[in-house]
Amino acid sequence: MPRYYFHVLNGKMLIDDVGLEVTDIEIVKVEAVKYAGTVLSSEQPTDMWKGIAWHMKVTDAPSPDEGQTYLTLTLTATDGAA
């Protein structure tokens, strides 16, 4: 079963060196969204609200700079004051 790594790259990098074994890419997509929600609610990235992108990169390697990238989630936000 393939192992996927969920790396958060938003200035305060969270490198996943454990990964998750998952049987298919559709499950990887669901897990990526779940993990993104967990990280966003616990880390509360304030830069995101300034229009600075928050990224999650899902790869097949414990380093975000190695291996194949399967998914990338990108989120930006602005409030009414921006």
As laid out across the biggest beta sheet, the strand order is: 2-1-3-4
Mean model confidence by pLDDT: 88
DSSP E strands, number: 4
Amino-to-carboxy terminus distance: 45 Å
The tally of helices reads 1
Q: What characterizes the major β-sheet? A: 4 strands, antiparallel
User: What integer value in Å does the Rg equal?
Assistant: 13 Å
The shape, in one word, is: elongated
Total discrete domains: 1
Strand content: 25-35%
The structural class is alpha+beta
Query: Which percent bin holds the helix content?
Result: 10-25%
Structural commentary:
- The protein is α+β, with helices and mostly antiparallel strands and 82 residues long.
- The chain has one domain (3-75).
- 23% of the residues lie in helices and 27% in strands.
- The protein is built from one helix and four strands; from the N terminus they run E-E-H-E-E.
- The chain has one helix at residues 25-43, and strands at 3-9, 20-21, 54-59, 69-75.
- It has a four-stranded antiparallel sheet, with helices on one face.
- The chain is elongated.
- The relative contact order is 0.26.
